Amino acid sequence: MEISAVNALTYEEFVELFGNVVEKSPIISAAIWSHRPFKDLTDIEAHITEFIHSLSDSGKEGLLRCHPDLAGRDLQSGTLTRESREEQSQAGMTALDSAEILLMHRLNSEYKERFGFPFIICARLNNKADIVRRLSERLKNDRAAERELAIEEVKKISSLRLHNIVLSGIQTKL
Ligand code: 2AL
Fold first, then answer.
1. Candidates 24, 67, 128, 154: which one to mutate for ligand 1, based on the most atoms within 8 Å of Cβ?
2. Does ligand 1 lie within 6 Å of residue 71's CB atom?
3. Which residue out of 75, 88, 115 has the highest number of ligand 1 atoms within 8 Å of its CB and is therefore the one to mutate?
4. Residue 20 in contact with residue 157, Cβ under 8 Å?
5. Nearest-angstrom CA–CA distance, 79 and 111
6. Which of 46, 104, 148, 162 is the residue whose CA sits 20 to 30 A from 30?
7. Is it true that 3-62+164-168 and 69-154 share their CATH fold?
């Protein structure tokens, strides 16, 4: 999909296509649409980053809370978004044995108890072992450091989603 085609999208088309680039946060694509015309994908990404960084600490934490746990209840009950399901599957979260599921539940609960938002990591860039290791390590951080680390992970997830939409076959929808 050429950037000119992205720039030609109506507001409704733009939000339909990019609304889940940041998980369950279509307000971000709704907001950045007004920055058209975009120069390229990097430009779109820069506007997403600018929006996220402009949020207050509680706004950033709200954004983090829009994300499902890894190997959590939404995965078990089949209610993940398509993007999240593919990412979690790629990181091996759909193929855990029962002991691994229990470990993930215990660590995710401990993390949420401590920080008030879910543990977030870019699943496409990490395998099962990395995820368990980073989750255990990051439990030792303080809340402000963890908030910033999690926001950096959200940016990586959204960058990969954006590139996937623009560079993949999803373009044939339009
Ligand atoms: C996720 C998700 O849904 N996709 C991804 O890369 N990471 N969730 C999470 N809690 O890290």
1. 67
2. no
3. 88
4. no
5. 22
6. 148
7. yes
CATH code linked to domain 3-62+164-168: 1.10.3330.10
Task: Give pTM, 2 decimals.
Answer: 0.95
- Tens digits of residue pLDDT in 3-21: 999 999 999 999 999 999 9
Place of tokens 């560079």: 167
Q: Domain limits of the chain?
A: 3-62+164-168, 69-154
Q: What DSSP string runs through 65-125?
A: HTSPPTTSHHHHHT-S-HHHHHHHHHTTGGG--HHHHHHHHHHHHHHHHHHSS-----GGG
Find the 135 Cα to ligand 1 centroid distance in Å. 12
Look at the domain 69-154 and name its fold: UraD-like (1.10.3330)
CA dihedral 86, 53, 40, 159 (to 10 degrees): -20
Question: pLDDT tens digits for 26-78?
Answer: 999 999 999 999 999 999 999 999 999 999 999 999 999 999 999 999 999 99
Catalytic annotation on 67?
Answer: yes
| pLDDT recorded at residue 172 | 45
